[in-house]
Amino acid sequence: MNKKIVALLVLICLLAGVLSACGKDKEINIIYPIVSDPECVDPQIAETDSAKLIVQNCMEGLVRIGSDGKILPGVAEKWEVSEDGLTYTFHLRSDTNWQTLRSHKNVLGEDYAEKFNTKVTAQDVVFGIRRALRPETKAEDAYLLFPIKNAEKVYEGSANEKNLGISAPDDSTVVIELQRAYPDLLRVLTYPMCMPCNEEFFEATGAKYGLELKYTLCNGPFYIGKWVSDGSLTLYKNEGYKGSAAVGAQAVYLNINANEQQRISKFNQGDYNVISLTAEQYGSIKKSDEINVLSSNNITEAFIFNFNDKYLSNDNIRKALIHATDVSDFSKDGNTNLCKGLVPDSCRWGESSYRDTVGKVNLPVYSADTASNYFKKGLDELDTTNISVTILCPEKYRNSTIRAIQRWEEVFGLSITVSVKATEREDIEKAVADGDYQIALYSLAADDDSALKFLNRFNSQSDDNFAKFEDADYDKLISDCMSQSAGENICSSCKYAEQFLVNNGIVYPVFYESSYIAFSGDANGVYAIAGLTVPDFSLRKAAKQ
Fold it and tell me: Would the pLDDT of 6 be above 80?
């Protein structure tokens, strides 16, 4: 559930702080709960939600994302793209610097203030991306950089990183060369793994980069000023920041609190002024004119099937159940945002919506005759006359799920015995992870705005393969998307992968679910960016919703 909570956060929001209602001279502070200590805030290996949140706010790459999802200047003030789309040339600002701390004397020496060059240079950008692609770094999203010339070979260890298609002709110029056109490159460059890294400071930390306050070096709108392990972190406004983010908050207090109910209670009491919420948690916050809420469709509720089950391992049985399902049964309980594909609406392609770019996936529709034909074939292949299945579903969707299985019973008659077990989402997640289920109505949350990353969770080689699904053909589809085999058509290849999963009865998307973020008090302004992995506390005003 924790992962989804930030996927919610993660995906929707950029939190904010310059608000006209507060007055220009009023100091604005954000108080926001995080579930766990970030442990390590090394941008190239940031994996936890807390670590990504801090990197997003305290670091800045070549470019950043604006409130409308468009790409804005970061440390690069401008850039050009060659006519063939294979060469990107970035020109860095002259006023972007690293924020040094007193504790850096323990890393860089007593005379660090005089000797350490605080200017962010092109070499810092090059070193950061090279680190992301080093085999030993194991950056979780490194495959999104494979379109860069020789990137995949560097990642596999078969090419020297000096042959990577990124260079710094001078201190203020970065050139990236691609092996194929990649319209999504600029958006990927906003990811934590693409943040600049000062090689001198990195080496001085002695393999402890990002593990403690003194081993951090920030160049973004905020910097880490305090870090109490397992207690709290404080981010302070970087007064030397000259970038495109309009920073209004003076400080962001990140309180570590793993207790879900306590987080909600503290928000209702005014102890926190920003909180992220799942659909179930949303109903627990008090509603008033002083509280604004934004939502994002970053979760796909879908039926998933256990392929190790003696019945559901059969392709025809799965397809029969899917064709006997009428998704309109779920809209009767208010779930009107029925799926247009597997990938949720929050995912993006370049500066546009992924779904708007690729269009709808052809989802199976209810057909009793089609379902009956598949079912008969499945029973014959299994050499049986009936099957029994149990569906796990969240308590919230009990009635909708019961209506769905009633159709199964109408279509298949005495040849099927179906039961519904409504429980907590955490229990469903554990059952699926343990393989202790047959069918589950499962929440597939987008961890960020990447459609390819969302689909990669069904890759047998992926650490995020929650359902333990294995299919050589699907693995090749995803591998082709990651490598040059997809050419310029990565986006359409992702849609094909969606269609593959649906056509083969691997997963059946039903409706999209929303995640929420609520803000009150001083945090009375916000703008949303679909698909962001974490809140960005570069605050801006927005109309109340």
Answer: no
**Per DSSP, what are the bridge partners of residue 156?**
none
What DSSP element (H or E) covers 12? helix 2-12
Residue in the block written with tokens 């009107």: 336
- Is the pLDDT higher at 403 or at 533? 403
**Alpha carbons 119 and 300: distance in angstroms, whole number:** 43
Q: What angle do CA 307, 311, 316 make, to 5 degrees?
A: 85
Tokens (6 digits) for 261 = 């109910």
Contact 29, 16 (CB under 8 A): no
Residues 6+ apart with CB under 8 A from 278: 1, 4, 5, 8, 425, 515, 516
| C-alpha–C-alpha distance, residues 509 and 532, integer Å | 22
Q: What's the pLDDT tens digit per position in 127-148?
A: 999 999 999 998 989 999 999 9
- Residue 173's identity, in one-letter code, is T
CA-to-CA distance for 390 and 324, rounded, in angstroms?
16
Residue type, 40: C
**What is the chain's alpha carbon radius of gyration, rounded to the nearest angstrom?**
24
| Residue reference for tokens 């589809």 | 477
* Phi, psi values for residue 451, rounded to 5°: -65, -40
**Closest to 344 measured CA to CA, from 2, 10, 114, 32:** 10
Q: Which two tokens stand for residue 304?
A: 């998933």
Sign of CA dihedral 116, 122, 123, 126: positive
164 neighbors 187 (Cβ within 8 angstroms): no
pLDDT in tens, 63-98: 998 777 789 999 999 999 999 999 999 999 999 999
